[in-house]
Structures are given as C-alpha cells and as structure tokens.
Amino acid sequence: MGLDDRKKQVLQAIVDDYVSTYEPVGSKALIERHNFTVSSATLRNEMAELEKLGLIEKPHTSAGRIPSDKGYREYVDSLMHPDILSREEQDEISERITDSVHEVTDLLHNATNALSEKTGFVSLAMSPRLHGSFLTQLKMLMIEPGKALVVVVLSAGVVKDKVVRIPNFLTNEQIMQISNAVEKNLYGKPLDEITLITLASSVKESEIPETLMNQVIYEAYVAIKQADKLDVYLEGEHRMLSLPDFSELGRARDLLGTLSHDGMVAGYVNEIEKSAEGQIRSDDSYMIRIGQEIALEGLEDCSFITTTYNIGDTLSGNIGVIGPKRMDYSKVISQVNFVRKKLNDEIRRLIE
Amino acid sequence: MGLDDRKKQVLQAIVDDYVSTYEPVGSKALIERHNFTVSSATLRNEMAELEKLGLIEKPHTSAGRIPSDKGYREYVDSLMHPDILSREEQDEISERITDSVHEVTDLLHNATNALSEKTGFVSLAMSPRLHGSFLTQLKMLMIEPGKALVVVVLSAGVVKDKVVRIPNFLTNEQIMQISNAVEKNLYGKPLDEITLITLASSVKESEIPETLMNQVIYEAYVAIKQADKLDVYLEGEHRMLSLPDFSELGRARDLLGTLSHDGMVAGYVNEIEKSAEGQIRSDDSYMIRIGQEIALEGLEDCSFITTTYNIGDTLSGNIGVIGPKRMDYSKVISQVNFVRKKLNDEIRRLIE
DNA sequence: ATTTAGCACTCTTCGTCATCGAGTGCCAAA
DNA sequence: TTTGGCACTCGATGACGAAGAGTGCTAAAT
After folding, report:
1. What is the mean pLDDT of chain B?
2. Which positions on strand D lie below 7 Å from a protein C-beta?
3. What percent of chain A shows pLDDT beyond 90?
4. Residue A223: closest C-alpha in chain B
5. What is the pLDDT of residues A89-144, one digit of tens each?
6. How many angstroms is C1' of C4 away from CA of B45?
7. Which of A147, A247, A249, A264 to mutate to probe the B interface, most B CBs <10 Å?
8. Which residues make beta-bridge pairs with A223?
C-alpha cells in the first residue's frame, strides 16, 4: 500500500490512540497527543484521504475516526513497532507456565491460563495434530473380566488410552496375544493408514474365534481413532465481559455463544493453520486474523493471534489469543511469542 | 411455617407470576391472572403481612412485590406442585444422553449438555468421589526408556493413569517387578490410606538401589493421588447472558467470573453434598440452595439444584443445575431428576 | 500547490423537567 | 374482616435545550 510517510504516521497515531482510549479520535486530539508539525486542518485533509482509501471510518458524521479492518491490517503488517516484554512480565509468565507440571497437557493448561490472564482476553490452545504420527506400541491390559485398557503409544511418545469392553470370558493371555499381534503388524504405521481392515488382517491367524476377535478389534480401532481427536483448551471467556467492546449484552452473548460451541473455534483455527502450512515460517511467526477476516459469527469485532508450538520434530499444535480487534497488537504478539518460546523450551525439557 | 391457606395461595401466585413475567407483581395484576374471590385491597393486606413475615419484598415503594429468598424457600418446600415431563421431552433427553457413549465420562458430558440446553441454564456434573474406594491393580508399563505409564485400577472398575518419568536405565523387568510388589502389598487398600510411606515399605526388599526406587515410588504416588481429584463439567455458561436476571453486565461478569474460577463451584457443591451425607435420601432426592444460601460471590441471584448419581454400589457423584433463583423450580427439578434417573440407568448398562 | 484559520453545520451526550401509570398504605364505611 | 376510595410515591418515558467534539469547506496565507 503506497502511503506517504505522513499518512502512515497519521494512521499509526489513530490506531494507537483508539486502542488506548477506545474513543474515536479526532484531528484535535491527534494534535494534542502527538507532536505533529502541521495543523489540525491538514490532518483533517489527510484523514479524509485515509477514509477514502478505506483505512479508517467514522461511526457517525460528527465523531472522530476509528480504524477499519483494513486499517488494522495495514497497521499490523507494516506500521507497528515490536514491543519488548519487561523482565518482570517474562518472569511471571515463565513461572506460571512451569508451575507443577507433570505432562504436556499441564503445560498447555498453564500456558493458556497465563496468556489469558496476561492479555485479559480469551486464550486457546490445541493439542498437537497427530495425523502424521505412527503407532509404536499397542498394549491391552485386563482390568477385570469383560473390561480392558487399550494403551496406544505413538511416535514422539504420545500416549493415549481408553477403557473398552471385551467379551467376558477372554483371558489375560488371549488379550496379550491379540495386542502383541496387532503391535507387531502395525508397528510404524501412520495413524491415518490404520483402518478396521488393516487391523483385522493383522490378527488373521489367531486361534480365537472370529466373532470374538471382531469385537475386540473394533474396540481397539475406536481407541486408536480416538487418539487422533483434537483437544481444545479455551480459557478466560469471562474476561471479554470486562471489555468496553462487548459492553453491549447482545454482542457479548453472540461471542460467548460461538466460543462455547464445541469444536467451532478449534475447527476454524485448524483450518487457517492448515491453509498456511506451506508458508515459510520464521522462528517467531504468528498468524493474525482481524475482524471480518474471521468467518465465525459473533467474532466480527475480534482478532485471532495464533502461533505454533512443537513437540519433538514431528508434532505441532497451536496456541494463541482471541481478543477484541481493538487491541494492543504489538504487546499481545510479543506475549504470544514469548509463551510459545517458553512452551517449546519446557516441552523439550519434559520429553527429552 | 404457619401460613393460612389464603396466604399460601397468594405467595404461590406471586412466585408463579414473577417467575413467568419477571415483573414485580402487584395486587391488581394478581386479581387479573388468578381467580381470587376477594378484592385487591384484601390482597394488599395479605401482601403486607407476607412482607412482614419476610417472604416477599418490594424493590421500591411503588412497585409490586417479588419473592425473597425465604419466600422461594417456602415455595419450594411446601407450595409447589410437581411437574411431569412430557413424553417428548423425556425422549429428547434420553436420546441426547445415550448418543455415542463409550465411557461414563461420555455419559456425564452428554447429561450436562442435555440439562443445560433443556433448562437454558448452566449445568454441572462432577466425577465420582473416590476417597472411599480402594486399589485393585497397579500396573506400570514401559513406554520408552525413561518413561512409563502408571495404570491405577480402583474398586468399581475405575481406571486412572498417568505418564511418569523414571530413571533412564531401568528395564522393563525391573519396572514390572516394582509394580507387582506394590500391587501385591497394597491390594485392597483404601486410596486415602496410601501414603508415600506405605508405598515405599511395600517394595522394601527389592534389589533395586534405594534412590532409584524412591524416584519411581514418588512418581507412582503422584499418579495414585491424582486419581483422587475431582473432574468437573460445567456447561452452558453463555446461556446465563440471555436471562433478564443478568442483563446487567456487572452481574453477568461476576457470575461468569466465579463460575470460571477453577474448582470453586466444584468445591462448594462437594461441601454441601458432604454436609448432607447423613441425611436420608429418597429415590429422587435433590438438594436446593437458594440465593444467599449460596456462599459464593456473584451467585446471590442464583439457585443450585443438585442430585446424586451412582456408579455401582460404592461410588457417587453429583449432577445439577445452576440457574437464576427466579426459575420454574418444579420444572427444573423434574428435569434434573429425570436426567439423574436416566444417567443411573445408562451407567448401570455400561458397566455391568 | 500546500497549508492553515475560520466558520457553519451535524450529531451525540447529558441533564432537566413534566407527565404518566402502576402500585402502595391507610382510613372509613360496609 | 373486607372493601372502596384516595392521596402519595417513585420509576419509566420522552421532550427539550445546551454543551461539546468533530467535520467539511472556503478563502487567505505561505
């Protein structure tokens, strides 16, 4: 976008002011808060042109200007100067993330908590996408007659399990036999290539009657498939109610309604991350969606800032923030990035 | 409470009207909607007395009356006539509860979902309290060097597990040895009697060096203790925003803030259920807390209706609704009770 | 060709004020 | 004990005007 320097300055000032005051900003206020060397009349002219370009708009004739989605986009893409987290804030976040951690899920939990509290917005995290990983172990453990625990271990050390029902009179040995056979035949197989068919054929030459076997195999199949599902952590929904952006009850209701719609947000984030899969990713790359760019009802006044964390070399998931589009982007971005970095470090420490 | 018949009628009429209209009800409105055989002036006198008894109150001098907490209490305890769920509603709820269930947690999930949607309020469920149950199996499963899965099986067939870190060079056999020793010594021991000490002494005469052993034992201990923690399902928070009772943003914020405070609601429900443990319970007993009876900030205008579901003979948990105290109690009670009944049936089917 | 001062105009916000109406309490009569 | 009547209270509603912030436009200045 070919904006001359002064226009850039003006747009930047408008966004900055609007974000911090939540009031439409007029030419006079602009002069007062920033040291422009020109008069308010000149700024008015500039603002009129920015409006013609679709970067700012006015709520009504006699109000100041507010950034449009396009204006925020321009700001984010080329105007904003990166923020540096204070030492104290870094320490606080670190502390919260590393507090009483036993598993990766604890880390994700802590990270979303910290992120939501620090930003004051909603934060979300998604468990790693497992479709690319493969099976390394499959154990079945007899719990009691008729009941067994299927433990699925995937590459990168991810463990998932599930209690399943099995025919009552199967013995411990038979169960072990089955799971050993399955494991031997399916070792190293990508999760998405495991089907009921491959599973069944892996235990063909067993002396256990086929109908029984089928029941066990089906349950194991469900357990394996279930390992693939995405877990989502959403945190801090109530914080949105404190924002002036959602002081209208109707907006707040729509927003929380959509957020609480199970899988809706996760599905969307998954979508946009997948669509960006090919892109080159620098070390601290993040993804931003602003306002109408988000195709979810009730989130028209929100922005997404998401980034990717890694588990080992092959697995990755997302973590990020959903806030009002009127947010301090540089600050939130640096927070998200710091959390991502810390999260990656801690995951590495935990699994290595 | 020694109320004469007419006072009872009046109080009942006031609660009914207020619940359905959300408007303070005056003497005239009362005459119009109900066939009282007396004049509005007489009702005014009655209402003045009910107010003196603390059962109703007026928001301001010239408004109608609304029930006080005490009034709701009286209504719930002796005035309300039970509601019967329509066949359709029963079917709908049943269908939702039994939809794609693999485990008890699925049932709880479905049940809270159904309850929240049907009532339009928040619903909650808590996993069963396990403090009384005992250990029946403890298995450790090698995942990879340095990493094992501890599987804890409790009476009533509850399975909990957790990935733990162990010293790198421990072999599969050694792990098996340890877990066998623990299991043998601790079989049948109530969960709350298992301490680090009892755990350690159960593997005293092993040839594995003590410091190593201690590490493993500690991890196992954490895994066992973690099995005891309560899971909570809260569902439908956003629905509260649609209620006129929370059209004030401040109230809504306080409410959702408290609800999202992890463990706060669960702790409270646990508390009140424990305090009622001695009481005789009829088959469809429920517990009601109204307004100020609830000692949680932001829930002054809410009521709890909770009940107990059972898993087997020994385990029980709670499920219920958090709604505005201005609710149709008889309807919600019957919904909660139906869900409880259905839930119990399905749990029985699932685990037997 | 830009920039600026000035001015008329627009539109929201806020406080005031009067009115309306639902509801009450109380008194005196039935 | 019940009822009709009446004065009174108080919130809700809407009209009205003043204040204030901001705009666009024009004409003069640089």
Report:
1. 90
2. 2-5, 8-11, 20-26
3. 56
4. B102
5. 999 999 999 998 888 899 999 999 999 999 999 999 999 988 778 889 888 888 88
6. 75
7. A249
8. none
The distance (Å) linking the CA of B133 with the C1' of C17 is 72
- Is the distance from CB of B47 to CB of B4 less than 8 angstroms? no
Minimal C-alpha gap between A223 and chain B (Å): 10
Q: What is the 3-state secondary structure (H, E, C) of chain A?
A: CCCCHHHHHHHHHHHHHHHHHCCCECHHHHHHHCCCCCCHHHHHHHHHHHHHCCCEECCCCCCCEEECHHHHHHHHHHHCCCCCCCHHHHHHHHHHHCCCCCCHHHHHHHHHHHHHHHHCCEEEEECCCCCCCEEEEEEEEEEECCEEEEEEEEHHHCEEEEEEECCCCCCHHHHHHHHHHHHHHHCCCEHHHCCHHHHHHCCCCCCCCHHHHHHHHHHHHHHHHHCCCCCEEEECHHHHHHCHHHCCHHHHHHHHHHHHCCCHHHHHHHHHHHHCCCCCCCCCCEEEEEHHHCCCCCCCCEEEEEEEEEECCCEEEEEEEEEECCCCHHHHHHHHHHHHHHHHHHHHHHHC
- Using the Cβ of A256 and the Cβ atoms of chain B, whether some distance falls under 8 Å is answered with yes
What φ, ψ does residue B316 adopt, rounded to 5°? -145, 155
pLDDT at site B20: 94
Could you report the per-residue pLDDT of A151-166, keeping only the tens digit for each? 999 887 788 888 888 8
- pLDDT (tens digit per residue) in B153-195: 988 778 888 888 888 888 888 888 888 888 888 898 888 888 8
pLDDT (tens digit, 9 = 90+) per residue, B269-301?
A: 988 887 776 565 555 689 999 999 999 999 999
Cross-chain CB nearest to B157 (options A143, A157, A247): A143
Would you state the pLDDT for residue A126?
Answer: 95
Distance between B50 CA and the closest CA of chain A, angstroms: 35
Strand D at less than 7 A from CB of A14: no
Judged by a CB distance cut-off of 8 A, whether residue B3 touches chain A is no
Contact B159 A159 (CB under 8 A): no
Is the pLDDT assigned to residue A219 strictly greater than 60?
yes
Q: What 3-state DSSP class applies to B330? A: helix
Q: How far is CA A231 from CA A129, A256, B184, in A?
A: 9, 19, 36
Q: Is the CB of A61 under 7 A from strand D?
A: yes
Please indicate if any CB of chain A lies within 8 Å of the CB of B222: yes
pTM of the model: 0.91
Nearest to A234 by CA among A150, A329, A124: A124
Q: What is the pLDDT of residue A88?
A: 97
CA distance A242 to chain B (A): 7
